[in-house]
Structures are given as C-alpha cells and as structure tokens.
Design the sequence.
C-alpha cells in the first residue's frame, strides 16, 4: 500500500532499541546511528515528532508484576522515558539537528512542559520535538502517549519502529510460519489482539484516522525507505485500497 504524501509524522521507538547490543541501558553509539536515521528522514522535508519508550531502563508493568504499586512503577517508567528523550536530544544536536524535549511530567530544569502550540511552533521552525513521560498519568503506556501526541499534533501517520519488520498473525520469533500482513485494519488488530500497540492506542488512531506504520528500526536506512513507500512494513488502516 502506498501511503499518501506526509508532511508531519510521529515516530515511536521502543526503549529497547536504544540498548543496541547491550542487555540494559543506553548505547550512545547506537543512539547516534538512530539519530542519523531521524535526520535523514527530516531532510526529506518532514516535520517530525518523536516518542521513545522506557523499557531499556524500567518498565512499569514489570515492576508492578514483582509487587510494586502499579501507579508508582508507572511513574518510574515515565522518568525512564525522559532519560531516553534527553539521550536522543543529545545525539540529534551532535549532528546539527535542533531539538526540543517536552515532558508530560513537569520538570522545568530539564525540559519544557507539553504545550501543544509551542510544540507546533518548534515544528514550524524545523525543530524535532521529542515528547516524554507518556500521557503523564499511570496505567497508560508510551504507545498511548504516542497515539495521543499524534492526534494532538495532527500527524499524517504514526510510525512505530520495532525489532520486527511488521505485523504478523503470530509471534515471528516463536513461529517460523507466522504470516506478515501488508495492510491490516484497526478492527482486526483489536479483535485478534495482534500486539501492534495496546488497545487504547490503536482505538485512538482509528478514531482519528491516523495510519500506523510498523517497521524494523534495526535495519539501516529503513526510516527513509518506509517514508518513501519502500522497505518492508505493515500499514494499519481502514483504507486498504
């Protein structure tokens, strides 16, 4: 499926991607490579918003599963996303890309609060805006944060960069015969629990008619390829023509 021309996109990266080949934390060299990918995409003329998960440092649901208070664990996860946002900001600015971090949890000495009109102004001035701390409330994932910001910023698509190259009917890491979809509807993703993003994020994208493009961020040059309509990807949309 060829995506319509896009002017503004939101790129959602899982926190685990920032680990590179490490088991934990942030690999600055790999983050720099990711930053170069984002810069190449920006140089096509796109306005780019970024949301990065926090799973490489702390995952709220995992903490809750081990007996922590869920809300407390989720707030810790939000702080992890701020750390990742600052790491990506540093990498982007090293290669000459102006960037602003806006956090849903206010921390004025570190970054800006989320203010939609200010974010729009940054984008108009050619800056990349990195949204951190999810939606600023527990019980929501960074997927929901990404869908919310994509709707709020009127993005033409939400690009989800993961470690797999699309949406499959079962886990391709466990099932060698898993089938990859070229396109799939929001309804099927929700009904079949296809694990693209959490249900509230998929529903928010459906309600605001925002296509979700799932692709592998680990393949070099893939962001630019996906944006140009090439590369391996799955598009989640109700417009399957």
Sequence:
């Amino acid at each position: 499926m060829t995506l319509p021309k896009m002017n503004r996109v939101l790129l959602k990266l899982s926190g685990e991607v920032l680990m590179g080949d490490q088991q934990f934390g942030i690999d600055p060299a790999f983050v720099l490579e990711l930053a170069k990918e984002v810069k190449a995409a920006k140089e096509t003329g796109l306005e780019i918003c970024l949301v990065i998960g926090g799973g490489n440092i702390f995952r709220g649901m995992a903490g809750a599963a081990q007996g922590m208070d869920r809300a407390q664990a989720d707030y810790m996860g939000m702080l992890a996303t701020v750390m990742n946002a600052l790491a990506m900001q540093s990498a982007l600015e090293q290669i000459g890309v102006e960037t602003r971090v806006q956090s849903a949890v206010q921390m004025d000495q570190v970054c800006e609060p989320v203010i939609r009109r200010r974010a729009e102004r940054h984008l108009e001035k050619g800056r990349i805006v990195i949204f951190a701390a999810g939606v600023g409330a527990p019980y929501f994932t960074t997927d929901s944060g990404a869908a919310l910001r994509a709707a709020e910023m009127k993005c033409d698509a939400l690009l989800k960069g993961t470690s797999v190259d699309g949406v499959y009917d079962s886990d391709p890491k466990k099932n060698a015969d898993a089938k990859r979809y070229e396109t799939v509807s929001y309804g099927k993703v929700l009904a079949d629990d296809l694990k693209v993003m959490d249900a509230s994020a998929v529903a928010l994208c459906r309600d605001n008619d925002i296509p979700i493009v799932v692709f592998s961020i680990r393949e070099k040059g893939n962001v630019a390829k996906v944006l140009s309509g090439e590369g391996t990807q799955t598009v989640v949309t109700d417009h399957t023509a």
Summary: The chain has a mean pLDDT of 92.
